[in-house]
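Review form for a predicted model. The reviewer records the input and the model, then writes brief findings.
Reviewer: anonymous (R2)
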Amino acid sequence: MSAHEPKLWNAGIAPHVEARWQQRYGVACAVVLAAFMLRFTLFGHLDTRLPFGFFLVGVMAAAWYGGLGPGLFVTAVGLLLGGYFFLPRTGSNAAMGEAERTAILVYVINATLVSFLMDNLHARIKKLESHKAQGTRPKPGAEN
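Model under review:
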């Protein structure tokens, strides 16, 4: 690889996955806070509809930027914030309704899947960079 040739990381695909953990999780905190503030202030009129929609976008951004850990971190914090502030409140002893359970399940499945897919993307990009640095080509269809 020549000095003037940009690496894939610098081309905007996954620029900060190798950044320090403080930076990756700091961005994750900022993303989840921004998602919460958008949902709470700008879209407060949604009441209890779409309790996790904004957090899913935050998971996508955090996992793209920082990888699996920050993506799962935003998933967990988004679940806690969305559940506390945006799910409908019932009596203290009342069971959660089917719609709420479904919203939680769909959010957790989608957010976890996005986090793992982004992690897989980062691993594949790193592998391609390794092949490029060695001057070799990966075998088509090869998983290893």
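Findings: Residues 98-134 form the longest helix (37 residues).
Further findings: Residues 38 and 54 are 8 Å apart (CA to CA).
Recommendation: see findings above.
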